[in-house]
Amino acid sequence: xxxxxxxxxxxxxxxxxxxxxxxxxxxxxxxxxxxxxxxxxxxxxxxxxxxxxxxxxxxxxxxxxxxxxxxxxxxxxxxxxxxxxxxxxxxxxxxxxxxxxxxxxxxxxxxxxxxxxxxxxxxxxxxxxxxxxxxxxxxxxxxxxxxxxxxxxxxxxxxxxxxxxxxxxxxxxxxxxxxxxxxxxxxxxxxxxxxxxxxxxxxxxxxxxxxxxxxxxxxxxxxxxxxxxxxxxxxxxxxxxxxxxxxxxxxxxxxxxxxxxxxxxxxxxxxxxxxxxxxxxxxxxxxxxxxxxxxxxxxxxxxxxxxxxxxxxxxxxxxxxxxxxxxxxxxxxxxxxxxxxxxxxxxxxxxxxxxxxxxxxxxxxxxxxxxxxxxxxxxxxxxxxxxxxxxxxxxxxxxxxxxxxxxxxxxxxxxxxxxxxxxxxxxxxxxxxxxxxxxxxxxxxxxxxxxxxxxxxxxxxxxxxxxxxxxxxxxxxxxxxxxxxxxxxxxxxxxxxxxxxxxxxxxxxxxxxxxxxxxxxxxxxxxxxxxxxxxxxxxxxxxxxxxxxxxxxxxxxxxxxxxxxxxxxxxxxxxxxxxxxxxxxxxxxxxxxxxxxxxxxxxxxxxxxx
Length: 610
Hints:
Elements: E1 7-11, H1 18-23, E2 42-46, H2 49-69, H3 76-87, E3 94-100, H4 101-104, E4 116-123, E5 136-137, H5 144-151, E6 155-157, H6 164-169, H7 171-179, E7 184-192, E8 195-204, H8 213-250, E9 261-268, E10 275-283, E11 289-299, H9 301-319, H10 324-341, H11 349-352, E12 357-365, E13 370-376, E14 382-384, E15 390-392, E16 411-414, E17 420-424, H12 436-447, H13 454-465, E18 474-481, E19 489-494, H14 501-515, H15 521-538, E20 543-549, E21 553-559, H16 579-586, E22 589-595, E23 598-605
Antiparallel strand pairs: 1-2, 3-4, 3-8, 4-5, 6-7, 7-8, 9-18, 10-11, 11-12, 12-13, 13-16, 14-15, 14-17, 17-18, 19-20, 20-21, 21-23, 22-23
Helix pairs in contact: 2-3, 2-8, 3-8, 8-9, 9-10, 12-13, 14-15, 15-16
């Protein structure tokens, strides 16, 4: 505020004595002033601009400091605290800030006056009996707080002893505050973009003089700057919450039932924004399981939505029983198409196009303890062997998804039973405050405990390796391998001779009796009869039949042909074409998967349904 104009006091000087003037050698006065009459008016100015200039400079310094101190983070509560810390003690001895619950969650509150929560209590000492932080504050219409919200203008109460509307809110509480020498109040509404974000209250106790209009103007300007920062933090909180909700809704909510591996997982969002990290566990035919970890480049809603599309596509490709390198090739083609659809070739591709993603896909077979893996620009997995040895698997890196046209390579690794396979995203090991090698060493030390359960391993890895303030999402998947015992697998080799079908049926019934699955013998006999007959008629030798006694009973028929059977609707006059229909009715699920030497027709029957 500008300093007031100087004060002038008029002073009337008496007419000079002619004799004294002549004594000093001055010419004698003449004119109308002779005879004691007034000749003129002398104005003597006595400006008091010094203290006003100091006060104005202090106000400008406080506002400049507020610009630097308020809004350093995108946290609503922290921004409100920064406002209070800036105002105490240069403007107020105590500051309280009340915000609606919706604003704290990033939303605009439709009824801000009915859901105020005490967010900040800050002052020169801590013994003043204000409502504590977290209390829900119900304000009466006569209070200065409600009046400032209703009018949108600050309210000044110079003498709280005479502020009957303030005292009527809670007389006992008001008496306690007055007993602590709190005597003057300014309430200012927090307004931004037409929305009410709360109310800030400034109390004076040490200075005996009450607040004035200059203090009210200063408080209003200070709160106006803080309101914009709080609104920015609120908008960021809303977007972050939406992205996090979308991210968590697209991630697996529970792990599927399977016996190939014991799995534990963790997902930690970044502090600055949600990214596109994801993981998945997908049961496959033949008691196998697929493990998947990926990371979409970027942050925010767009990255989370892209992650959901990739995860859905990966599950669909996994249902087709694709090898890891083939699945990554399909995901790569999908990323290229998505990038093109999102405008990746246009002028705004930098802001709207999909940059890319990394991925690691592994298939573990508990019957052979073989694990087939491929990665697309993703960090290599860690393997913890039963003896405690920890190593990073040397897999071909492969290009990130989205480049298009570059090949991927699969690698087969033998995993001993009770080994732990650790898959993670780069947010676990990458931190600008440390080297990647240091993080990998910490990861090796945290994993060197093979007797721990996967859940304990997950927590130990996060405690030892995860950055204190992660700048990127972290997805972690720990799988401890199991193996199907050899006595629970039965295999028969046969030629393409229809007469051998009956022998396989008899052998399978005997095997089921040895496993104690007599109740499943009839359905299994029918299934094998249809599957083996199809392989003999339409397949190519050699033909191999395998029964697996796992959680369910799995029947597999392998032949060297690449042509797959197809279930169709048979006409009433057709003599055949009903075999697969019978298989579909007897089995819980069935399908075809291709191998390097042909195909496998499989059917899975639940033991409980037998």
